[in-house]
Design a protein that fits this description.
With 212 residues, the protein is α/β, with parallel strands linked by helices. Helices cover 28% and strands 17% of the residues. The longest helix has 25 residues, at 187-211. 23% of the residues are buried.
Length: 212
């Protein structure tokens, strides 16, 4: 076009801004969420296919072989993946992922399972915030900790307790499991996100005033 007579893309460099949350000593793993080839979004359609539902019937936590060995986790063991915002319980899948990372598919929640289902919504772990420019929410990453859980029957028992009172479900699960992750208030997340957004906007205004 008129702005690019050579027919090539115009690339504009941008200063690198680190993620608003990174792994630390308390939450040492990078969580990444995404799709599986067998399901689409929240499975409103693919979940009705017996073949697709059978291929990936539930959420799983994918760990590297070295991380699994350090945690004492084997293929199929129940683990809890917890961030500062929430937790997910899933069976472990070992291999084909970088060390220090854990993957959760975001297809699974509660709408099709009724009350009492174990926690399995990946977005309960991700950051309550969004990119200040694109307004895209931070649904793809978070800093998390991982711990091995007991036998599957422990989780089933906790889920049964939770099913008795939906509003108190999380408290019942944590009480039944004893050492479950304790969630904290989200107020500091909202304040921090607002502060960071204002700081970025101030820097942008400063750059514009310098250039013009």
């Amino acid at each position: 076009g008129a702005n690019d007579p050579n027919g090539r893309a115009i690339l504009k460099a941008a200063e690198y801004i680190p993620p608003i949350e990174e792994p630390d000593s308390t939450y040492p793993f990078w969580l990444t969420t995404g799709r599986t080839v067998y399901q689409f979004h929240t499975r409103t359609k693919t979940g009705r296919s017996p073949e697709l539902a059978g291929a990936v019937p539930d959420v799983f936590a994918q760990l590297s072989e070295s991380d699994a060995a350090q945690l004492g986790v084997s293929e199929g063991d129940w683990v809890e993946v917890a961030s500062r915002r929430g937790s997910v319980q899933a069976r472990a899948r070992i291999g084909d992922i970088a060390e220090g990372h854990v993957f959760l598919p975001f297809h699974f929640g509660y709408w099709d399972e009724g009350e009492g289902r174990h926690r399995r919504a990946a977005n309960e772990l991700t950051i309550t915030g969004w990119d200040p420019i694109s307004k895209q929410p931070y649904f793809k990453f978070a800093a998390v900790q991982i711990r091995k859980l007991g036998a599957g029957r422990v989780i089933e028992k906790a889920a049964d307790l939770a099913g008795k009172a939906k509003q108190r479900g999380k408290e019942a699960v944590d009480k039944a499991m004893g050492g479950a992750h304790v969630e904290r208030s989200h107020v500091s997340d909202y304040i921090g996100a607002a502060r960071e957004t204002h700081q970025q906007f101030a820097r942008a205004c400063g750059n514009v005033s310098t250039a013009h």
